[in-house]
Amino acid sequence: MKNYHINIFYSDDDGGFIADIPDLKNCSAFGANPNEALKQVLIAQKLWLDEAESGGLPIPLPMYRPIIYKAI
After folding, report:
1. How confident is the model at residue 1 (pLDDT cuts 50, 70, 90)?
2. Beta strand spans in the chain (E)
């Protein structure tokens, strides 16, 4: 399985953590804590990739790279 970047952040609106994979459209998950969100998004990633493969859809290469700011 390819190594895709995963964002995990807290959502006040949802009252928990959201994990998403920017390279895989609409691939995201929710968890009560960061570890649970990560576990769930890895399941979603596998399902996303399996579905794309079985449907003959293109699987994107991992391209997303976050911008990292360095404090001055």
Report:
1. low
2. 7-11, 16-20, 28-31
Gap between the Cα atoms of 9 and 18, Å rounded: 5
Beta bridge partners of 28: 20
What single-letter amino acid sits at 3? N
Contact 30, 47 (CB under 8 A): no
The tens digit of pLDDT for each residue in 14-72 reads 999 999 999 999 999 999 999 999 999 999 999 999 999 999 999 999 999 888 777 77
Strand order in the sheet with 16-20: 7-11, 16-20, 28-31
| Residue 20 near residue 34 (C-beta atoms within 8 A) | no
